[in-house]
Write a structure and sequence with these properties.
Layout: H1 24-30, H2 39-44, H3 46-58, H4 75-90, H5 102-105, H6 110-125, H7 144-170, H8 175-183, H9 195-204, H10 208-220, H11 225-238, E1 248-253, E2 256-261
Antiparallel strand pairs: 1-2
Length: about 270
């Protein structure tokens, strides 16, 4: 079982559109945790965090989109998903999820990416001394009850992954998501689940003139730009910040008054 963090993080809460497909209490039970309060620690522990952030970046997950998952109501599909992973782990032959290349992944569905994560994470957690070791001991897997426990752990991982996919793509980021991003930020900031990170990336990649216009447009709040600029200068004059014609030059060209900004000549003090 993963060690508890110094400041426990609550289980993700549904914020934004929709709800989580799987119940957190059921996930905790299937993962062998004492309560759903331990799920955040499980997520943030190195093994799961490593595999989860690989899926996030390799798929990649895109906020504001609808990613394919297995819904809780489709018990047949989730059972087949779980069993296929168990069979791959039990088989002596190499699975397609053991050492997939970027070329392999490019045509994968969301379900295949999820299956790879659950397979690799279960395999790592089944190592001696880790949280799934007892359920995957060879001796225990020889009987039906033992296999049932192993399948239970795999199913718990699958349910957890599908909940996190929904949280990343269709909801406002939970505290757990924010902690994941603090530990291992999304490789592509434009796809971060954190809106402030995506916005910063957008601003950093704007042309300076566009950025300036964005800031000024927001500050003037729909007011006529020329009048808004005049009001700023007049306020400075009223407040004693500048002299009446400081920095501004008005001259006549024929019968037309032309205004401009005074520029210092070389040698002017």
């Amino acid at each position: 079982m993963a060690p508890r963090s110094p400041s426990p993080t609550p289980v993700p809460a549904a914020v934004g559109t929709g709800d989580f497909p799987y119940k957190w209490d059921e996930i905790a039970t299937k993962l062998g945790l004492e309560s759903n309060g331990e799920i955040a620690d499980f997520i943030l522990a190195p093994i799961f965090l490593h595999h989860w952030t690989k899926l996030r970046d390799q798929m990649p997950l895109r906020p504001g989109t609808s990613a394919e998952i297995i819904p809780a109501e489709d018990r047949t599909a989730i059972s087949e998903f779980t069993t296929s992973i168990y069979m791959a782990m039990d088989c002596m032959a190499t699975s397609k999820y053991d050492r997939p290349t970027s070329g392999d992944r490019i045509n994968w569905t969301t379900i295949e990416h999820s299956e790879c994560l659950v397979y690799q994470c279960t395999r790592d957690l089944a190592v001696a001394g880790r949280s799934f070791h007892i359920e995957f001991e060879r001796q225990k897997l020889k009987n039906e009850a033992g296999r049932k426990d192993a399948l239970c752990r795999i199913r718990g991982l699958a349910m957890l992954v599908f909940n996190l996919i929904v949280n990343y793509t269709q909801m406002s980021p939970s505290n757990v998501i924010r902690k994941i991003e603090a530990k291992r930020p999304a490789k592509d900031p434009s796809l971060s689940p954190l809106p402030e990170v995506r916005r910063k990336w957008q601003l950093e990649n704007m042309e300076l003139d566009d950025l300036r216009k964005t800031v000024l447009d927001r500050q003037r709040k729909g007011e006529d730009e020329k009048q808004w600029l005049i009001d700023i200068l007049m306020k400075e004059l009223k407040d004693g910040g500048v002299n009446g014609d400081d920095g501004v030059e008005v001259k006549r060209e024929g019968s037309i008054r032309v205004g401009g900004v005074k520029r210092k000549k070389e040698g002017d003090e």
